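Hi everyone,

Forwarding the result from last night's run.
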Amino acid sequence: MAKRIILDCDPGHDDAVAILLALASTEEIELLGLTVVGGNVPLHSTLLNARKVVTLAQRECKVFAGCPRPMMRDIVTAEHVHGETGLDSGSGQPLGEPTVGVEPDHAANFIVDTIRAEPEQSVTLVAIGPLTNIAIAFAMAPDIIPRVRELVIMGGAGFEPGNITPAAEFNIYVDPQAARAVFESGVNLTMFGLDLTHQMLITPDRLAKINADGGRVGKVVGDLLDFFNQYDISKYGWEGAPLHDPCTIAYLIEPAIFDMKKMHVVVDTTDGPSLGRTVTDWWAATDETPNVLVATRGDADRFFALITERLSLL
């Protein structure tokens, strides 16, 4: 039976691939809706990008606008990685204009109403941007927390340094107060942080396969990832950029790709150089009860093969 999910996102190149992977995987994933938050770029751009990606997929999916900024601080965005539009391409060719509209409900209301209306433990939340929409929904309606089957996030870092500060991963750093509230909510939480996603590099061979074997959409994705690769190759000297966000969807489709370990994780919300750090008790150094299932290792070749194969179905 297909897993029924709500995908909370801030597109973003890797968000776009995650959306496409979910829409292409109809046997494993039933996408109930996209909820959009400000993050990689401001909300007006992430919302437009989400609509463009659904249009590219030629699939039906409702799109809901959410929070434009974090709960307690100004928004930090990442145009230096994703370009001014959030989906700049290597060729300079933009995605086509969307034919998909925006639903009237706020994203947080959609999350609350959907989880209340569906049977308990039947809806999985996937959050691949800042956790503002999720935290707001949980604060509005704490009764939904035990009804959620699983919350799978892309965010955080254990051993790895941060990618926006020396300590913090971007999604957590943008709204650390929201992240802390979610991590302490008691929800069944699974975390794909930089320890895992930095293993999933868009190497030249993998990018060539997407272009050659990913069909109509694969060629578009290849053009987007050509741009996305440039920042990380220049900054870190890697073979390619890590493809962060689709790890969450790949886990729901083919969990055997990944190794997982239950750990205690807390989000640092103190002002200072560690703001937004996910302090991860990798080796059970404390007596704290593990509260997060953390992805530790993955098979990058299987991951990219899955993405290429599914893109070819769109």
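The beta strands are 3-9, 29-36, 63-65, 123-127, 148-154, 189-192, 258-263, 265-267, 278-280, 292-298.

Cheers,
N.
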